[in-house]
Amino acid sequence: MGKKLLIVMANTDPRNGEELGAPLFQASVAAAMDYEVEVICTATAGRLMKKGEAAQLTVKPGSPKTVYDFIKDAHEAGVKFYCCSPNLDLFNMTQDDLIPECSGIVGGAYMIEEVMEGDCKVLTY
Prior knowledge:
- By secondary structure, the protein is an alpha/beta fold.
- Strand 3, helix 3 and strand 4 form a beta-alpha-beta unit.
- The protein has a 5-stranded parallel β-sheet.
- The protein contains 4 helices and 5 strands, in the order βαβαβαβαβ.
- Helices cover 30% and strands 22% of the residues.
- The protein has one domain: Hypothetical Protein Ychn, Chain: A, CATH 3.40.1260.10.
């Protein structure tokens, strides 16, 4: 793969489903274009990495496709999802609570290093 895209979902609030479509769709598109794509869910968006949360949400009311379906589609396209470490405490989660599509837990230092040292572009939502 060539360049890397780092998508940081920090201000994307799961309580507003329409906010979730663009970053997940763009992650899938970038992966389909052979970019290495990582999505880091932090702050309120960290809830998306908890089993059962994204499966209850839709981007558009009445849609049969859940936010979890979008996550699974992106993951199948090659997108790696990560949960930010403070979210475990914030949302009373353990690593066992994370969805199978979550590749692991990262901290703030990981994001800073990727931005400052890595060969990546960053989109923040």
